[in-house]
Design goal:
The protein has 161 residues and is α+β, with helices and mostly antiparallel strands. It has 2 helices and 9 strands.
């Protein structure tokens, strides 16, 4: 049993360190400081005005800043602030393999004096091409679902690959 713990401890530390670096990259990307995010994850990003796509071979993400949505359900405000897509995201299983990915930035705010329970991180996304994507990829997405107590604001990115 002690051999098992000795083997498991370094693995847990490696996963923890990898998750910390990824969280920093997500925070940089959320604040639109794309140069720092590129340096942390080793990819290049681009911003897009309106819904026009700029295609250059070295760019990975296409931003849709005006693909926004919001709703107020009895004081629980839910908002989609940003949508990003790519066809060349590295996969978790194999960094050399490429896959399509969608990222959606959510902001959820409870403006009431009671608790809500919501799970946007268990959503199914239907794209404009009719493709169904199970959101999110739990390894790289933020956890924004669950109980949202009075006055709490949760925000984060959900990624589907």
């Amino acid at each position: 049993m002690s051999k098992f713990i000795k083997l498991l401890t370094p693995l847990a530390l490696i996963l923890l360190l990898a998750a910390c670096a990824e969280d920093e990259a997500k925070k940089e990307l959320d604040s639109n400081d794309t140069e720092k995010a590129e340096a942390k994850v080793g990819v290049e990003t681009t911003e897009v005005e309106e819904v026009e796509e700029k295609e250059e071979p070295s760019e990975i993400w296409t931003y849709y800043d005006n693909a926004k949505w919001s709703e107020d359900f009895a004081g629980l405000k839910t908002e989609i602030q940003k949508v990003v897509v790519t066809d060349i995201a590295p996969t978790v299983e194999d960094e050399n393999a490429k896959a399509s990915a969608v990222g959606v930035k959510f902001l959820i705010e409870n403006t009431t004096d009671h608790m809500f329970t919501t799970y946007p991180d268990q959503a199914i996304l239907i794209t404009s091409t009719g493709e169904q994507i199970d959101m999110p990829d739990m390894w790289i997405s933020d956890h924004i679902g669950g109980d949202i107590h009075e006055g709490v604001i949760k925000e984060g990115m959900l990624f589907g690959i």
